[in-house]
Amino acid sequence: METGQILYARYRDLIVLKFAGEIGYTSHWTFPLSAGLSSFIERLCAKKDFDNVVVDMTETTGIDSTNLGLLAQIAQFMIREFGRKATIITSQKNVTRLLRTVGFHTLFTLIDEHAPIRGGLEAIPPVDSAEVDVARMILDAHKSLAGISADNRLLFTSIIDAIEDDIAHRDPGTDTPK
């Protein structure tokens, strides 16, 4: 699968997200896919009408830092609001290694499983956003990643600074606190 797809389903109080293929940068930036996920997360967290999230990454071949940051936002919300970790199911060694490297084992319960979730899943629709909105989404996602650990803070600080500078240049009236 050249570009990725993000699917979802609801089973009573359980939200299932399925990431399939390459999520994020492929041969071009797929910001509408990330913006769609961000919008979905915002609506989900505003409603608070669920109590568990499972993310199926058994068919994920790769994921970029923006989408990792969006996943971190879900996990941080789950811990803050419900006092429990969300779950990620993954069987791809490179994806599992990446998740552990950015500290997801502290935010999520990671399960090694080779059977993907099937049935009843719908695509999260992509959302077109203005460049500044996309930059803010990317900034928030990277701040979520940086908040996981001191190692991540060191890793993502220069990216966060660059995005904040970019936003300030594109939208001079905006204050982007560090």
Explain what this protein looks like in three dimensions.
The protein is an alpha/beta fold and 178 residues long. The protein has a domain at 5-128: Transcription Regulator spoIIAA (2-Layer Sandwich). Helices cover 48% and strands 23% of the residues. It has helices at 31-47, 65-82, 93-101, 104-107, 131-146, 150-170, and strands at 5-11, 14-23, 52-63, 86-90, 108-112, 122-123. Strands 5-4-3-2-1-6 form a six-stranded mixed beta sheet. β3 (52-63), α2 (65-82) and β4 form a beta-alpha-beta unit. α1 (31-47) runs parallel beside α2 (65-82) and α5 runs antiparallel to α6. The protein is globular and about 45 Å long. The protein starts with a strand and ends in an 8-residue tail after the last helix. The model has no long low-confidence stretch (mean pLDDT 88).
Provide the fold topology.
Blueprint: E1 5-11, E2 14-23, H1 31-47, E3 52-63, H2 65-82, E4 86-90, H3 93-101, H4 104-107, E5 108-112, E6 122-123, H5 131-146, H6 150-170
Parallel strand pairs: 2-3, 3-4, 4-5
Antiparallel strand pairs: 1-2, 1-6
